[in-house]
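Work Package 4 report. The design task specified in the project plan requires that, given a folded chain encoded as C-alpha cells, an amino acid be chosen for each position. We show below one input record used in the internal validation round.
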C-alpha cells in the first residue's frame, strides 16, 4: 500500500500528525508513507524514520516571488515530484484550500481514495471548499484532540480502531557527551516562555518564582524573535541559574526539548515537541483551550490552566517537583 499524507503546517500541527505513521504501519506492515510538508518542517518529519519520501511545499517563500521564473519553475517541479507516484490513499488532515489543491493534484491508483475532514474543529481554520477534492470526507466531533484528528480520519477510512497511545516515532534523548555545545552536560530545565500571542504568556513573576524553586538546576531560555530575546534577557537578569540561548535553528530548538530533564512552556509548538518526546513536561494554558492540544499520553506530562485561567506559580512548582522526583 502506498499512502500520502498532506499536512503542510504549522509546527505543532505537523508534530501532532506524526502518530498517523505508526498507526498506519501497525495495521498495514510494509506500507510506504510519503508526506507533503512546508519546507521549514521537513527536518521535523525526517526525525520519524518510517516516512519514506518527504515532498517539500514552499508556499510561504513562493508567495514572495510569484513573478519570478525561478519560483514558477520550483512550483512546476513540486507538482512533478508530487505526481511521480500513484497512491492507494491520500490523506489531507489540514482541511484548507491549499492542501485540497495538493490532494487534488496527487495521483491515485484505480480504486484509490482521497480522504479528508468533513468538518473542522472548534476554533480551527477549516475551509469547507477543501471537500471538493475528496472522494471520502470523515466527520469528527468538533472537540476532537489535535493528535486524535488525523489518527481518527485514517482509522475510519481504513477500518481500524484508534485504541493505543500515540507513537510519534521520535528518537531517544542524546547521551550527555554527544549533545551539541549549546546544551549543558548536566540535567537542565528549559522554559518555553515565548509565544506570538501575548494573551498566551505566563507572567514574568511566575517564571522567576519557578526558576528560584528549581535552583541550582540550570534553566535555559530560548527565543525566536527580537521581542522574545528581550523577554528572555529580562527573565535571566532575575534568575541566577538561567542562561539565554543563542539564536537556534528549529532543529537545534528541537534538541533542547529532546534532552531536557524538565520542560515547562506555554501552549506553543516547542512545548508540544517536548511532550511528544515524552520528556517530563508541564504545559501551561492561559488563553487557549486545553482540550485541543494537552499532552494526554503519558504521566510524565502535566497540563495546567485553561482558557482564561492560567495556573499559579505554586501549582507549576509543585508539578515540577513531582516530575523531577520521579525521574
Amino acid at each position: 500500500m502506498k499512502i500520502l499524507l498532506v499536512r503542510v503546517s504549522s509546527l505543532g500541527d505537523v508534530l501532532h500528525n506524526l502518530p498517523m505513521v505508526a498507526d498506519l504501519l501497525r495495521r498495514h506492515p510494509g506500507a510506504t508513507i510519503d508526506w507533503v510538508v512546508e519546507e521549514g518542517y521537513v527536518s521535523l518529519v525526517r526525525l520519524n524514520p518510517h516516512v519514506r519520501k518527504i515532498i517539500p511545499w514552499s508556499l510561504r517563500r513562493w508567495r514572495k516571488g510569484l513573478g519570478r521564473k525561478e519560483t514558477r519553475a520550483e512550483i512546476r517541479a513540486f507538482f512533478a515530484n508530487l505526481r511521480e507516484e500513484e497512491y492507494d490513499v491520500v490523506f489531507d488532515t489540514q482541511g484548507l484550500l491549499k492542501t485540497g489543491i495538493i490532494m487534488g493534484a496527487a495521483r491515485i491508483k484505480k480504486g484509490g481514495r482521497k480522504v479528508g475532514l468533513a468538518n473542522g474543529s472548534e476554533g480551527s481554520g477549516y475551509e469547507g471548499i477543501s471537500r471538493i477534492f475528496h472522494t471520502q470526507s470523515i466527520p469528527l466531533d468538533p472537540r476532537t484532540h489535535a493528535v486524535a484528528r488525523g489518527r481518527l480520519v485514517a482509522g475510519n477510512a481504513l477500518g481500524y480502531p484508534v485504541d493505543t497511545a500515540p507513537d510519534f516515532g521520535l528518537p531517544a534523548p542524546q547521551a550527555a557527551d554527544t549533545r551539541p555545545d549549546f546544551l549543558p552536560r548536566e540535567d537542565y530545565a528549559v522554559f518555553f516562555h515565548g509565544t506570538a500571542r501575548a494573551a498566551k504568556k505566563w507572567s514574568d513573576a511566575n517564571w522567576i518564582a519557578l526558576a528560584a524553586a528549581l535552583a541550582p538546576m540550570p534553566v535555559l531560555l530560548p527565543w525566536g524573535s527580537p521581542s522574545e530575546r528581550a523577554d528572555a534577557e529580562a527573565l535571566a537578569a532575575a534568575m541566577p541559574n538561567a542562561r539565554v540561548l543563542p539564536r537556534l535553528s528549529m532543529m537545534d530548538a528541537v534538541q533542547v526539548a529532546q534532552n531536557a530533564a524538565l520542560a515547562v512552556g506555554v501552549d506553543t509548538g516547542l512545548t508540544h515537541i517536548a511532550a511528544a518526546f515524552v520528556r517530563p513536561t508541564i504545559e501551561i494554558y492561559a488563553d487557549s483551550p486545553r482540550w485541543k492540544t494537552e499532552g494526554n499520553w503519558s504521566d510524565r506530562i502535566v497540563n495546567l490552566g485553561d482558557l482564561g485561567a492560567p495556573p499559579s506559580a505554586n501549582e507549576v512548582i509543585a508539578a515540577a517537583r513531582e516530575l523531577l522526583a520521579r525521574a
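The chain has a mean pLDDT of 97. Validation will be extended to a larger panel in the next phase.
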